[in-house]
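Re: the 453-residue chain
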Amino acid sequence: MNTDLPVDNEALEGPVVPTFIRYMMPSLLGLIAMTSASLVDGMFIGNYEGVTALAAVNLIIPITTLLFGVSMMISIGGSVRGGKYLGEKNTTAASAIFSKTLMFMIVYGLIMISLGLIFEAEIFASLGADKTLFPVMSEYYRIIFPFLFFQFIVIQVYFFIRLDGFPNLAAAALAVGAVVNITLDYLFIAVFGWGLAGAALATGASEVMSLAVMLVYFFQPQRKIFFRLRQKNWREVFQAAYNGISEFINEVSGALIGFIFNWMLIQRAGVTGVAAITLVNYLLFIGFMAYFAISDSIQVIISQNFGARNPQRIRAFLRTAGIMIAGVSAGIVSLLLAGSESLIGLFIDVERDRETLALALEFVTYVWPVFLFAGFTMLISGYLTAVHLPFQSALVASCRSLIMPAGLLILFYMLLSDYRFVAAISVAEAFSFVLAITLYLYHTPASVIPERP
C-alpha cells in the first residue's frame, strides 16, 4: 500500500499543522538536497579549480536562469490551475493541463537548447564576459546546456507529482539526484581531475537520475492525474503561464540582476568581485530555498482550498507558514552573523584567496537584512498566485526581484564609490515587503472567497 497518498484529499480535510508539515517537509528536504548539491558543486569548483572557475560559472547563470524561468512559469501556473481543478473534483481537467504543459515543456526545451548551442559566443559576449574567459565558460556551458532539457521536464513533473498527493516521491527524486551529483563531483573533479567539464557532467547526470525516479509516478494506480497525448484548448497553457507569471518574473529578474551585479563588480573589482558575490550567493541560496519550499507548499494547499471555497483553512495555513518562515529567518540571520567566515571557507582556500574572502565578508554585512523580509514577501506572492490573482502576484514579484533592486542598485552605484552599493538589495527587499503586506490586506482570504452562510 502506498502511504504517500492520503485517504482522501488531506489539503481540504486534514488537520492544519500536520497537513502543512506533510506537504512542506518533503518539499523542504528535496530542495535542501538540491541546494546541497549546488553548494557541493561550488565547494569542489572553488577548492580544486579556483576563483576564476567560480566566476566563469557565475557568469553563465543569468542565461540558464532566464530559460529556467519559463519552465517555472508554466509548471507552477499549470499546477496551481490543476490544484483548483482537483479542489473542484475535476480530475479530467487536471489531467489535461498536466498533459499540455508537459508537451509544451518538451518542445520548448528542444528549441531553446538548440539555439543556445548555436549562439554560444554571442551569448557569452552579451553576458559581459571578457573573451579571455570564453574558453573556461565554454568548458562548462557546452556540457551543461543540453542537460537543461531534463531539468525542464523534472521541474514540470515535480510540481504535478506533489499536487497529486505524492510529495515523498517528488522529494526522493530530488534527493537521489543530489546524492548522484555529490558523488560524481568528487569522482570527476577531485579524483579524475576533469575540472568544469566534470562538474557539468555530474550536474547533468543528477537531473537524468531525478527524472528516472519520478517516472515511477506514472506506474502508481492511485494517481488522479494522467497523461493524454490528444488535447484541445491549447490556449489554456498560456492562461496557466499568465497565472505563473510571478515565478517567471522572479527568475528572469534574477538573471537580469545577476547581469547588472556582475557588470558592476567587474568594473570595480574584476574577477575577484564576481567570485566574491558568487560565494555570497551560495549563502543566500540556502535561505531562499527554504522560503521557496514553504511558499511552494502553501500554493499547492491553498489552490485546492480556493477551488473548494475554504477561506478559514487558507488563513490557518498562512499563519502556520508565517511562523515557520520567522523561525527559518532567525536561524539564518544568526548563522550569517556568527559564522560567515567559516561558511565561506568551505568554498575556497582562505589562505590562497584572502582578497576574495575579505570582499565576500564585506558583502555579507550588506545583504544579511534580506532575510528579515524576503520569506514573508515570497509567501504572500505565492498566496496571490494560488488564489488566482496573477496581476497582484506579478506586481509583488516584479517589485521584489526587478524594479526595486535594479533601480536601487543603479542609484547606489552612482552615489557610492565603494562596495556599499550592494546594500541596495536589502533596501529593495524592505520596500517590497511593505508592498506585499499592503496587497495582502486588500486581498485577504475572506475577501477573495466570501464566507459561506
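The chain has one domain: 16-448.
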